Amino acid sequence: MLSFPNAKINLGLNILAKRTDGYHDLETCFYPIPWRDSLEIIESSEFGFYSYGLKIPGDWEHNLCVKAYEVLKADFDLPPIEIHLLKAIPMGGGLGGGSANGSFVLKLLDELFQLELSTSKLEAYALKLGSDCPFFIQNKPTLASGRGEIFQSCDVDLSGLFLAMFNPDVHISTKEAFSGIQPATPKESISEIVQRPVSEWKDLLVNDFETSVFPNHPEIGKVKEDMYESGAIHSSMTGTGSTVYGIFETPPENIQWTVFEL
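The structure corresponding to this sequence follows.
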């Protein structure tokens, strides 16, 4: 059984407050984009995980695809399977590719073995994999709050526009990303801003992590500047970086960027 897990971008990302559990309260809008991996699951005589394309760091036992199988196998008598993953979404770039892979494994296993899991149950299993994983179960524009695990539907539609993506291949640790953050409540919430025309987002819709990442990695900030100079109506770093996206009304001509029609 074959599927194509997609990436996401963050439309804005505000860090609101430090929590007593060590996490932060945040606000963001997850938006699915058509940058995809390929994922296949087949029944087998023994379990196996095989990856191709971009090299995935770390041991395969810690991959979210494997963990997704394990969390379901703990509750269901699943037979051995082989998971084949062709990796095209860059890792560590704020695109959620690993989270998408794990969540899509849950959905494939549910379909393949007729587990008849409800959407809410699949989201509960996905939450065991990571706070942003449940987003990829319904895979539609979603406002996220709390530490990123509280979801609310979001009526935002970028269809007909063009999305340019560039990953400068810079690794940014979570510790580094949070090092310069000063939590604060913005004057206008992301849920309100994304209801405005995209042409009004430039000075309103911000990613708070840019304040800590750009001074240390000016090449990332330069990508954002280049996108605006090339005609983007909105540009931002996604997640904790380092990928930068730009939203355009017509396709940009920079051959270094990966461009999708939304």
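The mean pLDDT is 95.
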